[in-house]
Amino acid sequence: MALFSLGGDRLQQGWCVWITGLPGSGKSVVSEALIKLLSDKGINAQLLSSDALRKVLTPRPTYSPEERDIVYATLVYIAELLTRNGVNVVIDATGNLRRYRDSARNKIAKFMEVYLSCPLEVCMEREARRAKTHGAPRRIYERALKGKAPTVPGIGQPYEPPINPELVLDTTIVKPEHAVQKILEVMAEKQFLKL
């Protein structure tokens, strides 16, 4: 689904898929795999990562609730602008509070939430041994348990799972390549794209 003009200069509205879950649940791996598969099918999409945005918006992040409010409000604002202008978006972000993700749902017409379900203990194990952090800070759970990072979702801050996401994937069972296929199926059902 490329960007086509719909009579004159009006662009077709883009869609937004927000991939959420605890740190270590597999968001970045699944998001990047989704972007690649879409690209292989000739479908352009912009990846928006909260970790990448933080490097620009808050280069010395504190991860305080106030700072999170600013980061997620900015993330949603950018996603809304892009989709309104015909750009498809994949958001790779924990968005630990439901209201962050609900804000995107309320502002973006073609919106879909994908929840990567994974027990905290498994996320902690993965995060401790991963070599590639995808821009996320290293060893956040270890630092949280030592009291050096008190605002990590799942430990020092709540993570509120979605109530009615379009898709829930248990990443202890579903491999990234299968997760991406499931996401594409739901996107097709919602008529975001044609397979």
Q: What would you say this structure looks like, in words?
A:
This protein has 195 residues and is α/β, with parallel strands linked by helices. It has seven helices and five strands, in the order E-H-E-H-H-E-H-E-H-H-E-H. The protein is globular, with a radius of gyration of 17 Å. It starts with 15 loop residues before the first strand and ends in a 6-residue tail after the last helix. Residues 1-8 have low confidence and may be disordered.
Helix/sheet category: alpha/beta
Shape: globular
Rounded to an integer in angstroms, the radius of gyration calculated over CA atoms is 17 Å
The major sheet is characterized as: 5 strands, parallel
Helix amount: 40-55%
User: How many strand segments?
Assistant: 5
Low-confidence stretches: 1-8
CATH architecture: 3-Layer(aba) Sandwich
The total tally of domains equals 1
Strand order of the largest sheet: 2-3-1-4-5
Strand content: 5-15%
Question: H/E element string?
Answer: EHEHHEHEHHEH
What do we call the CATH topology? Rossmann fold
Give the class-level CATH name: Alpha Beta
